[in-house]
Amino acid sequence: MKNGTDSFLCLGHWPSAGSFGLNTDILATNLINLIVVLGLLIFFGKGVLSDLLDNRKQRILNSIRNSEELREGAIEQLEKARSHLRKVEIEADRFRVDGYSEIERKKKNLIDSTYKALEELENSKNETLNFEQQKASTQVRQRVFQQALQKALGILKSHLNGEFHLRIIVVNIAILEAREEGKN
User: Fold this and answer.
1) What else is known (predicted)?
2) Which residue of 56, 61, 133, 184 has the lowest C-beta tally within 10 Å?
3) Of 145, 142, 162, which is closest to residue 153 (Cα–Cα)?
4) What is the rounded (10 degree) CA torsion for 55, 61, 62, 67?
């Protein structure tokens, strides 16, 4: 390897080459090579690089447009959701008010029906009491009448003898004859 390096270095010292020669200064040659390569890359790669950058720019712009469309769609959906929420809240308030009204109406109906039932019970109680009083007074009258009848029968039986019996029959016959004569 030393021989190859030596021969390369020796090329720079050839007197017969005249003005043409190889620069063996690595730092200077690298800088020149880099400038040449960059120049070639810029000259030939400008179109490719421009296309790559344009494609990248288009993708970014498309992504931004898509994001804007998605954002607008999301805003529309948000507005629809808010509108729906307001409608649902209004409906819920109406149901709440209607529910309270329905509860109050049912409460009033229950109270009214309870009062009516109590009134009917009171009337039924009064009718039952009146009926029981009439029944009791009828029973008392019947007993009094039975006792009076039994007492009268007892008095009649004790006073009724053959002669008294005959007098009653005669009186009844006289009453019947008087009726017959009054009809003729």
Assistant:
1) In plastids the F-type ATPase is also known as CF(1)CF(0).
2) 184
3) 145
4) 150
* CA 179 to chain CA centroid, nearest Å: 95
What token pair was written down for 182?
């009054």
Q: How far apart are CA 150 and CA 6, in angstroms?
A: 175
**Residue 158 Cα to chain centre, angstroms:** 93
Q: What is residue 50's predicted lDDT score, i.e. its pLDDT?
A: 84
Single-letter amino acid, residue 158: S
How many whole angstroms separate alpha carbon 13 and alpha carbon 157? 190
Phi, psi of 47 (to 5 degrees): -65, -45
Torsion of CA 104, 108, 110, 114, to 10 degrees: 160
What type of residue sits at position 167? R
The residue count for the chain: 184
| pLDDT the model gives residue 133 | 92
Domain boundaries defined on the chain: 28-161
